[in-house]
Backbone:
């Protein structure tokens, strides 16, 4: 299959060759001069002139803090940075929805020349008066970093005048990639923690970190934990509330999903309050079950029955799920998938999820994976799988063509690449509207994969039509 | 019976300003930033790649925004400045970036737009490009067009127009024996849909006028399925045609809200002596008439039968549909140019525009709205440039319109107001087929009219308990 595919070497920038790796015996793509070992050169700045799928520091901060629904999120900068992030994520709230408004200081030329501090001050005051938030986050964007506004000072002043936390987020876009933005967001959030009473918090209590409640996912997870008998103190940040974050230091354990986004927060909390944390993933059957078992294990001394309850939940949910998955598997067995996601943690879960469906993962990549992530990926992937860091459309399209995949899992920026080539697609990013976490999420995922992969439209696409014709010709010739 | 409520509503005049006019912040902007407009223009040129000189985030955000509307790939390169370059200047990244897109995209033109960051640090792009050409003169260099698009002065529409103007200024060759005057016409349609561009092409063809449409993203942002992913999509204004724009017979430019100093047509006229015909965007009967009239003049030939018939059919539809919509009240928002066209259309068909809102701020909106509907309405609508969605929502609540026209971002406002939203403009992120939607000329006007009438009927039908299937 790979030998008559387009050779992929030409589309790889030489500077990027060490950000691509092929596992096991080289099949085609192995000759790209790609990384020989597992030292993918990740976490480096995007290359000038390449069309990176990456966003900026600001974007990272915005992702993390955005779901805090009763806070005011003010973007200090020109209009674009705020406009492009208005309500683009499906982070749901069970109460207030202040987060769904997009506030900007909408800096004008005058402000850029004379400084934006006065405008920022006025904007904060008028918006706090209008919306009465529980706290305010002020995001710096690139030009704010350049014109040198003292955001800290303005925030401090407003905070005192209005008696509420006003927290600067040092998220100037050029400072780095999303990861730097996560750090900045966690730092800002950490200032909230530890500022409220925790006397009524149970010893059997947790915070759920790194879930943004897309399509109500955090409610699914929260329900599992509550059925196990745990008190959920704060959900960080999906369906987030300022007051809950203020008392999150009272919880016995932090559960961190996605090692990128909120891990810095968990680390800060560990340093400051000795609060332990566990890394979990809620995607796919094994990881979801493992999360519940790990948590039960943690609390089993305090509550000996907790493991039984966790097992009961898993048994009930998986029992209902497996027969349904078998149905899907019948149609999906042997199909191939490509994965390109923001954080590498998700890739792990997806690889396992695809195995349940009888599918093979031929390409896996992420925007912000670390060296350890890629090592682990290489270990669990089938031989010949392409592993790639911070890719771009040209590369991705060459890879998915070469591997002749049936589905591409990615974010909205990847969708046109798949669709242009006539390949199925599943949105696994922050804009998704489907609940993909938990056991129910595995069902939804399988359903979505099934819907796209088994659609009859692919057979009419030139890529497949040509192949079908070639096969038909072959058969005729042999007859 | 559902009409009982609408009967009570007598048309209201402009309302009092209900929100604080002295607010300095913006909530839910009704505009996007300048480089987005410029990127779309560069995407509409053959073998060109849009290139943002600034940090990475801006390009990625804009790509995603544009992709969600057109449902097409949209590559925007970026010079990806980091903290160091932001301090010491982005020149080296710009040059390296251009070399990279030359190599990997085989771009024949690079359209470079600045961003807030590079404008603020004061990178002199013209000078940097000059240096670049000297340093790499031995290579086969692409055409380099640059435009200054700081977002803190203007919206995506200013960026769009600035890019068009920059191309008109930087691409055409002087008129010489090798580049002689020709019979072709330049068309600068502004920010319209790919379908509108295709329709424009047909019209010029039937007038026997060779046309250069700038930009032409009718294929690059609404392409066919491919066998192979293309580095740069096929289509776009041919670069050879751009070079000959200065030798054209005339330029037709749509832009009622375009200042002369923003006009690409004016540049072509001043620099190369190409006569400029500057018209409002042809949405609605009268604006379309003006356009076809101009084409007849330029071509020196009468209206092709096909368009005379389209016009006749439209008039027929106006009669058939008028009763469903007469006296209904509408809120219109979006880009200034678009809302001027839509307001004209509404006034012509008997709908009363009560609020005309835009995030743009050309200073021309009031005057142009008065021009398109002053003779048709008893009272002019409330015209609100430089407004955000927070205020639009506020006003809409008070006005209780029967109908709202605008882009996707007003969905919640419309839902809360219980009024149907006819989706027009950019972005359409919550419906399918935006690229194939016509708005311009008689056909586009017809299509808008049909959608408006149907929106009103649909609402009436849905609200009616009888479930009638006959109107
Ligand atoms: S910095 Fe300027 S160019 Fe970049 S997204 Fe923000 S407004 Fe747009
Ligand atoms: S200006 Fe900076 S902060 Fe804003 S989108 Fe661009 S890179 Fe991100």
Residues:
């Amino acid at each position: 299959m790979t030998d008559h595919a387009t050779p992929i070497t030409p589309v790889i920038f030489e500077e990027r060759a060490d950000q691509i790796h092929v596992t096991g015996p080289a099949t085609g793509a192995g000759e790209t001069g790609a990384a020989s070992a597992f030292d993918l050169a990740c976490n480096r700045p995007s290359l000038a002139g390449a069309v990176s799928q990456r966003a900026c520091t600001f974007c990272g901060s915005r992702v993390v803090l955005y779901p805090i629904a009763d806070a005011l999120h003010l973007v200090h900068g020109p209009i674009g940075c705020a406009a492009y992030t208005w309500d683009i994520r499906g982070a749901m709230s069970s109460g207030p929805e202040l987060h769904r408004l997009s506030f900007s200081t909408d800096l004008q030329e005058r402000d850029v020349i004379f400084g934006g501090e006065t405008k920022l001050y006025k904007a904060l005051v008028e918006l706090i008066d209008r919306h009465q938030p529980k706290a305010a986050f002020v995001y710096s964007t690139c030009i704010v970093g350049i014109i040198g506004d003292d955001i800290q000072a303005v925030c401090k002043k407003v905070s005192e005048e209005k008696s509420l936390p006003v927290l600067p987020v040092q998220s100037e876009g050029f400072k780095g990639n999303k990861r730097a933005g996560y750090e900045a967001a966690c730092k800002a959030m950490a200032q909230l923690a530890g500022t409220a009473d925790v006397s009524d918090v149970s010893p059997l209590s947790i915070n759920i970190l790194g879930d943004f409640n897309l399509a109500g996912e955090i409610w699914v997870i929260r329900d599992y934990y509550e059925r196990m008998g745990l008190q959920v103190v704060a959900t960080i940040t999906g369906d987030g509330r300022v007051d809950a974050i203020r008392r999150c230091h009272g919880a016995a354990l932090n559960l961190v999903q996605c090692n990128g986004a909120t891990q810095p927060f968990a680390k800060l909390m560990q340093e400051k309050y000795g609060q332990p944390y566990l890394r979990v993933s809620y995607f796919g059957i094994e990881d979801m079950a493992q999360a519940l078992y790990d948590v039960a294990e943690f609390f089993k001394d305090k509550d000996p029955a907790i493991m039984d309850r966790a097992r009961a939940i898993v048994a009930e949910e998986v029992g209902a799920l497996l027969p349904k998955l078998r149905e899907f598997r019948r149609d999906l067995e042997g199909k191939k998938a490509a994965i390109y996601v923001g954080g590498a943690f998700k890739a792990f879960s997806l690889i396992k999820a695809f195995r349940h469906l009888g599918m093979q993962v031929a390409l896996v990549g992420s925007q912000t994976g670390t060296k350890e992530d890629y090592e682990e990926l290489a270990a669990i992937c089938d031989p010949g799988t392409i592993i790639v860091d911070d890719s771009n459309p040209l590369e991705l399209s060459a890879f998915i063509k070469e591997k002749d995949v049936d589905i591409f899992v990615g974010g909205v920026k990847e969708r046109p690449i798949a669709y242009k080539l006539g390949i199925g697609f599943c949105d696994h990013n922050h804009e998704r509207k489907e609940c993909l976490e938990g056991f129910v999420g595995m069902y939804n995922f399988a359903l979505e994969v099934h819907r796209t992969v088994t659609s009859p439209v692919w057979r009419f696409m030139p890529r497949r039509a040509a192949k079908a014709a070639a096969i038909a010709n072959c058969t005729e010739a042999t007859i | 019976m559902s009409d009982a409520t609408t009967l009570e509503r007598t048309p209201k005049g402009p309302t009092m300003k209900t929100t604080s006019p002295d607010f300095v912040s913006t909530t839910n902007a009704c505009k996007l930033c300048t480089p987005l407009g410029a990127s779309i223009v560069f995407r509409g040129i053959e073998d060109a790649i849009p290139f943002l000189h600034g940090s990475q985030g801006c390009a990625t955000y804009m790509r995603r925004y544009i992709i969600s509307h057109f449902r097409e790939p949209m590559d925007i390169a970026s010079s990806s400045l980091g903290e160091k370059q932001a301090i010491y200047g982005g020149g080296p990244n710009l040059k390296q970036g251009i070399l990279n897109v030359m190599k990997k995209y085989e771009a024949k033109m690079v359209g470079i737009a600045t961003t807030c960051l590079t404008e603020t640090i004061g990178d002199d792009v013209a000078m940097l490009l000059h240096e670049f050409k000297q340093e790499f003169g031995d290579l086969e260099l692409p055409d380099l067009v640059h435009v200054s698009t700081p977002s803190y002065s203007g919206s995506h529409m200013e960026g769009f127009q600035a890019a068009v103007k920059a191309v008109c200024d930087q691409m055409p060759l002087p008129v010489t024996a090798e580049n002689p005057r020709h019979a072709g016409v330049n068309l600068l349609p502004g920010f319209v849909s790919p379908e509108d561009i295709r329709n424009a092409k047909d019209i010029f063809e039937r007038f026997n006028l060779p046309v250069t449409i700038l930009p032409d993203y009718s294929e690059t942002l609404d392409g066919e399925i491919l066998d192979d992913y293309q580095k740069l999509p096929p289509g776009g204004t041919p670069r050879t045609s751009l070079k000959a724009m200065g030798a054209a017979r005339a330029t037709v430019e749509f832009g009622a809200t375009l200042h002369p100093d923003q006009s690409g047509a004016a540049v072509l006229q001043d620099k190369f002596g190409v006569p400029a015909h500057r018209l409002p965007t042809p949405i609605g009967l009268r604006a379309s008439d003006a356009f076809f009239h101009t084409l007849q003049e330029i071509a020196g030939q009468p209206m092709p039968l096909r368009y005379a018939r389209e016009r006749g059919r439209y008039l027929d539809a106006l009669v058939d549909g008028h009763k469903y919509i007469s006296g209904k009240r509408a809120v219109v928002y979006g880009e200034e140019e678009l809302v001027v066209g839509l307001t004209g259309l509404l006034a012509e068909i008997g709908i009363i525009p009560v609020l005309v809102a835009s995030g743009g701020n050309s200073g021309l909106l009031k005057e142009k709205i008065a021009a398109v509907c002053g003779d048709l309405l008893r009272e002019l609508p409330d015209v609100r440039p430089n407004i955000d969605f927070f205020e639009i929502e506020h006003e809409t609540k008070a006005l209780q319109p029967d109908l709202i026209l605008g882009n996707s971002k007003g969905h919640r406002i419309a839902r809360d107001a219980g009024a149907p939203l006819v989706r027009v403009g950019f972005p359409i992120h919550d419906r399918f087929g935006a690229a194939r939607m016509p708005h311009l000329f008689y056909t586009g006007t017809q299509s808008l009219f049909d959608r408006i009438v149907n929106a009103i009927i649909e609402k009436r039908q849905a609200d009616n308990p009888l479930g009638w299937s006959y109107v």
